[in-house]
Design a protein that fits this description.
Length: about 100
């Protein structure tokens, strides 16, 4: 169950990063509130998952999901640039996440 909560927490991190971008520096109230709600939910689920997962594993997986997820959202939804170096960086992060999961 801790792993499921951790994955949801990571996906919520992607949501709050995206809604923060849409909030335009917290000047759009709807997106600002969405950012804060999803941020709190993400932190809460991360905290719960840390009751049974190691700190290093849980935090690394959470930030990795957030980083790669934000990268994908940036490309697919926001039209951000794609380059071989950025794709390699994302692949290396995913590889690290897989190794972290296998080691725990």
């Amino acid at each position: 169950m801790a792993w499921i909560l951790l994955i949801i927490a990571g996906l919520l991190e992607v949501c709050w990063a995206y809604s923060m971008k849409l909030s335009n520096g917290f000047s759009h109230w709807g997106y600002s509130i969405l950012t804060l709600v999803t941020m709190i939910a993400s932190f809460a689920l991360l905290s719960i998952s840390m009751k049974s997962l190691a700190l290093g594993t849980a935090y690394t997986i959470w930030t990795g999901i957030g980083a790669v997820g934000a990268f994908v959202v940036g490309i697919l939804i926001l039209g951000e640039a794609v380059s071989p170096m950025r794709i390699l960086a994302a692949v290396l992060i995913v590889g690290g996440l897989i190794l972290m999961k296998l080691s725990s």
